[in-house]
Amino acid sequence: MVKPKIGLEIHQQLDTGKLFCSCPSIISDREPDFIVKRFLRASRSEMGELDKAALHEVLREKEFHYYGYYDTTCLVELDEEPPHDINKEALNIALNVAKLLNAKIVDRVVVMRKIVLDGSNTAGFQRTALVGYDGYITLKGKRIGIPTICLEEDAAKIVKRTPKYDIYNLSRLGIPLIEISTTPDIESGEVCREVAEHIGMILRSMEKVKRGLGTIRQDVNVSIPRGARVEIKGAQDLRLLNKLVDYEIMRQTKLIAIKDRLTKLSFSKPIDLTHLFKNTGCKLVAGVIKQKGNVFGMRVSNSEGLFGLELQPGKRVGTELAEFGRVKVGIGGLFHSDELPKYGITAADIKNIRKELNCKDGDGFVLIADKKETAVKGLEMVKERLKQLSQGVPSEVRKANPDATTSYLRPMPGRARMYPETDLPLIKPEFSQVKKARLLTELAKELEMKYGLSKDLAKLTVKSPKVDSIVKLIKRYDSVKPSFIAETVLKAEKEIRKEYKKEIKLSDDVFEKVFDALNQAKITKENLLTILAHSDTKDVDKLIEEMQAGVSDSELEGVILKAISQNKDASFNALMGIVMAKLRGRVSGSKVAQMLKKHLK
Ligand SMILES: [Zn+2]
Fold first, then answer.
1. Tens of pLDDT, residues 462-519
2. Distance CA 452, CA 444 (A)
């Protein structure tokens, strides 16, 4: 059994204003108000020694297009204006999180520039500041170290990558992020997920932490003995985290197992095989040739059966080669001998290909159909990748796919990538402004003990993005049963969907109005849902008024007197029942009780 080393890096967006300007932390997804086009600006002198990852990007010589918005971006995001002072509210939240993670706090917060050359930062660097260090969490008796807690600015969001230029959305740039890293002490995918959940719970215990998909991102570092550190970026779904780790362990284990075989490979030069495909039944290849493209092939001696080996579910060595070629030189179609005949490439085609490439028994081949230059370079990349793999698991950055497999993204960045931000002062952390947040696990207990929510309802409440408004409503409207408030806020939208067959988003404001009315006995529990269900088309105050006006005092009196005269010996409770049934939903129980008492005297 392999003992992996797993570490996590968690990025959580904050719901304060942006970190270094006054723009709101809102991602605009509409058509941009303006587009700015730039080439990468950072100069060699500014960066000192270019590291491997930096070079990787620079070599691509890309143009970048930035989508800007008048309401969510300003000159700071465009790097036309120096950063403003750090957002104090965001800093306080970061300090608070650091405390909850048992970390030591830095004497001075120093904003640093971290080189980022993929265009996602207009300045060519990301601003980041260490806030806490040497922290830890305890999970099921085991201690997991938290070496650093940083506050940093989020990068611009990628809209689209094209071979010529990349498009980024500037509105995400500058949104405050808390970055929390763990030591690589995690030993399984399952524990990894539990650690992420626990840290997520601590983060959500803060006010002003963003919620929902994309607002918290997990990067996972995985290595196994004889493997290498691989960083997996962009795991958004916590439920996939254990699978993601298990699949990476699988990939590294299998790569180690084939390492010796890979050292025995040898390669022919890329050879033009286009003439063999003049009348091909393969649509992809026919399309490429029609566009004046070529098919190039390369013999890989002793590779039979190798390309078809599965590294992760549904992903073979061949996939690994194709993805590497795609990132490096943008190849389109790659075929390998282990998957053919298929895709319209016939057994007769294979015979011809093998002959042209001079393949012997036990040899395999790789084909790339693309523009001539891309195809040739692509085969060189295939060779490079196989050589890399023959030296062991490459240490690199991979991206998480929705099915928990991973794909090659870029080489592992080097270390010397930071230098101080000269436009900003050092900051002495001020704890007078930092109030220590209560953990959601503690809040759940309070909702249970003090407000009488069931254990399950309390758990559901603290997990919900609406937890803050539920707690506020419970504290404010003390005549309404807390569990009724929690259930209504959590489930009203779903119930309306079921009963009224419509989608509706209920705002805090609407909930406040109806619970205020209920608290004052202006409406009943029964007609609360009716009001909510119509709040999308009608003013809530109006709806409440109508409900109140539903039964006039004289009408109510009439019903009560009739009930008393028709049920001479009935008790108070029985009469209440009769009257309420008659006026169901239109009047509050307390109002009926009041008037009934008066008439029974
Ligand atoms: Zn701004």
1. 988 888 899 999 999 999 999 999 999 999 999 999 888 889 999 999 999 999 999 9
2. 11
Q: Rounded to the nearest whole angstrom, what is the distance from the C-alpha of residue 35 to the centroid of ligand 1?
A: 15
Q: Measured in angstroms, how far is the CA atom of residue 76 from the centroid of ligand 1?
A: 5
Among residues of the chain, what percentage have pLDDT more than 70? 94
Assign 3-class secondary structure to 440-490: HHHHHHHHHHCCCCCHHHHHHHHHCCCHHHHHHHHHHCCCCCHHHHHHHHH
Q: Is it true that the peptide bond before 482 is cis, omega within 30 degrees of 0?
A: no
Higher pLDDT among residues 290 and 124, named by residue: 290
Neighbouring residues of 420: CB distance < 8 A, sequence distance ≥ 6:
110, 111, 112, 113
What phi, psi does 233 have (nearest 5°)? -100, 145
CA of 25 to the centre of ligand 1 (A): 9
> Among candidates 326, 325, 338, which has minimal Cα distance to 380?
325
Cα angle vertex 23, ends 20, 28, to 5°? 125
Residue 199 to residue 241: CA distance in whole angstroms: 14
The rounded Å distance from CA 421 to ligand 1 centre is: 18
- Average the pLDDT over 202-222 and give the result: 89
Q: Residue 13 Cα, ligand 1 centroid: separation in angstroms?
A: 16
What's the 3-state SS for 337-350? Answer: HHHCCECCECHHHH
Q: Quick one: pLDDT at residue 160?
A: 93
Average of pLDDT values for 381-385?
97
The CA 271 to ligand 1 mean position distance, Å, reads 53
Is pLDDT above 80 for 22? yes
* Cβ contacts of 460 within 8 Å, gap of 6 or more: 486, 490
pLDDT above 80 (res 300): yes
* CA distance linking residue 63 with residue 118, whole number of Å: 10
Query: How far away, in angstroms, is 48 Cα from ligand 1 center?
Result: 28
Local structure of residue 325 (DSSP, 8 states):
H
pLDDT of residue 29 exceeding 70:
yes
Q: How much distance in Å is there from the Cα of 79 to the middle of ligand 1?
A: 10
Helices (H), 264-398: 283-290, 317-329, 347-357, 372-390
Ion ligand 1 neighbours (CB, 5 A) are 21, 23, 74, 76-77
Assign residue 141 a region (left: φ > 0; alpha: ψ between -120 and 50; beta: otherwise).
Answer: left
Q: How far is the CA of 74 from the centre of ligand 1 (A)?
A: 4
Distance 36 CA to ligand 1 centre (A): 15
Q: How far is the CA of 375 from the centre of ligand 1 (A)?
A: 43
Q: How many CA atoms lie within 13 A of 259 on its CB side?
A: 14
Query: What's the gap in Å between 78 CA and the centre of ligand 1?
Result: 8
Task: Encode pLDDT of 120-158 as tens digits.
Answer: 999 888 999 999 999 999 998 899 999 999 999 999 999
Q: Measured in angstroms, how far is the CA atom of residue 572 from the centroid of ligand 1? A: 66
What's the CA-to-centroid distance between 32 and ligand 1, angstroms?
15
Taking the centre of ligand 1 as the mean of its atom positions, its distance from the CA of residue 73, in whole angstroms, is: 4
Ligand 1 centre from 465 Cα, in Å? 27
Q: Is it the case that residue 263 has pLDDT exceeding 90?
A: yes
Q: Rounded to whole angstroms, how far apart are CA atoms 104 and 131? A: 9
